Amino acid sequence: MMDMPFAPEFEAEMLENQRQLDRLFGSFNGIIVVDEAYQDFTENMSFIKRLEDYPNLVVLQTMSKAHGMAGARVGFAFSSPEIIELFNRTKPPYNVNELSQIAVLEALQNEEKTKTEIQEIINNRDFLVEHLNSFNFIKEVYPSEANFVLAKVENATQVYNYLRDKGIIIRNRSSQIEDTLRFTVGTMMECKAVITALREIKEN
Prior knowledge:
Elements: E1 2-3, H1 18-27, E2 32-35, E3 57-62, E4 75-78, H2 81-90, H3 98-108, H4 111-132, E5 138-141, E6 148-153, H5 156-165, E7 171-172, E8 180-184, H6 188-203
Parallel strand pairs: 1-2, 2-3
Antiparallel strand pairs: 3-4, 5-6, 6-8, 7-8
């Protein structure tokens, strides 16, 4: 199983090595699952377009990220008719409740609104990355094609605690990747609040 786009600690350019992926898809006899949870935040091509080339490919997408509907617990699996038939045989009955179905169908009919919101998140992400890079105690801001940014931060836990005490909730990922904090991209006002709080750390 692969995440597409890759987690932000990897260079986005890795996706462009299509020949390696083609060799993998063509030579592997099992089922290959590509998780495209953050596909809406990248310009890279969705692997849905490759389904006809690889009958063993399954592409997963979700309503939780770009559409902001995590509470609905709805996702999609795209694959060959043969694999989808297997899914239908094994899935539990009524696996998606009616209220979630109604909400998702309504959201999918308003794609222009979703596109506008996605572009706003991308713009805010660029703003956040630019300003995070201006602090000398932030050692590296990893490339991101998602709705969050991962940064390597000096004294990460202290910075995390300071922001938490200010009512700004981020994620301390230091147990997974040493000295890293994950900043979710919110509204422009929220991004500016993060930058303002980080400036206070710099001044102190």
